[in-house]
Amino acid sequence: MTDTLLHIDDLKTQFFTEEGVVRAxxxxxxxxxxxxxxxxxxxxxxxKSVAAQSIxxxxxxxxxxxxxxxxxxxxxxxxxxxxxxxxxxERDEMLSNEEMRRRIRxxxxxxxxxxxxxxxxxxxxxxxxxxxxxxxxxNLSKSEAKEEAIGMLREVGIPEPVERYDNYPHQxxxxxxxxxxxxxxxxxxxxxxxxxxxxxxxxxxxxGQILSLVDELQDKYDTSFVWVTHDMGVVAELCDRxxxxxxxxxxxxxxxxxxxxxxKHPYTEALLDSMPRPDQxxxxxxxxxxxxxxxxxxxxxxxFHTRCPDARExxxxxHPDCREVSDSEGASHKAACVKHDAFDVGYEFxxxxxIRAETGITGDVVTDPQxxx
Length: 373
Ligand code: SF4
Hints:
Layout lengths: L3 E14 L2 E14 L3 E5 L6 H8 L7 E10 L2 E8 L5 E3 L6 H8 L4 E4 L3 H4 L6 H13 L3 H14 L5 H4 L9 H13 L5 E5 L7 H18 L2 E6 L2 H7 L2 E6 L2 E7 H6 L4 H8 L49 E2 L9 E2 L38
Parallel strand pairs: 3-9, 3-10, 7-8, 8-9
Antiparallel strand pairs: 1-2, 1-4, 4-5, 5-6, 10-11, 11-13, 12-13
Helix pairs in contact: 4-5, 5-7, 7-8
The protein binds iron/sulfur cluster.
């Protein structure tokens, strides 16, 4: 029996803009177990970073978490209930902002952002920032915290950590700065680290080094991760389980092995097809056709239907939820696609029916760009 560390149920985060309401995260649910690396993967605009930041309630106006529940062990990080007049209000047991700051952020759940320069202060040395973080969060003296900081720099593979302790962030390479952020995230030995595309800005070799380091440290500290990425290669290398996001929703949820070898959703298939594979030689890459529609006005029916090569008329009408579609008794495998028997829409998928623009569907109906050449 695995212990659930993080439980997310029907989480919704919206941005209230002049153009309308952007449903960036629209009812996602997933769990993270102790010692597990869970991926959130999808293209830009899928809502994965907003989802990750919503876990720690790091959403600023005009954004707002408007529904669902986030639980970390027995603590309610976010949860709403209906008040006496039907209004939604925060549940009594939900942690206050002060408690989130004091007990959870950094100590229990740490976050690593994509751009280390946004997280490191350019006017203080790297050692100073790491030492202060450790001193405050672990209640150590200045000299004890300095010793710990140098130890953490060594642990994440910074060469000559004693000398490097006095360097400023600009004196570190991008990969080394990202290592410093990993050191900072691990400094309090949190149970969960949320990594928001931390290797996206790095070159492939440095990215490989960081992923190996994370793998090694995860084994050592048994830390759980939510790993946000658009890169299926990173998912293959790191993740135990994966949530594929499209336009604010989870469309496939499976173990990493099942996701790669028994793919159940056409969007995941398209992501995999667009990825260069070292084991295959291809003349050209196969990008996902079309562009992701705006989350302010998502297409009716299946949100992927405007780009889906398998789309049928029914896909323009039924909005599929993410439900169990596994055909074995193994691990859970969920997908939001009506072509699976679990949806029983009374439609024969072997009969192709073209989706026509006259159906009045919001969003462009995509044809293969090569067809028009
Ligand atoms: S429901 Fe239809 S449009 Fe959506 S992914 Fe499945 S086949 Fe494609």
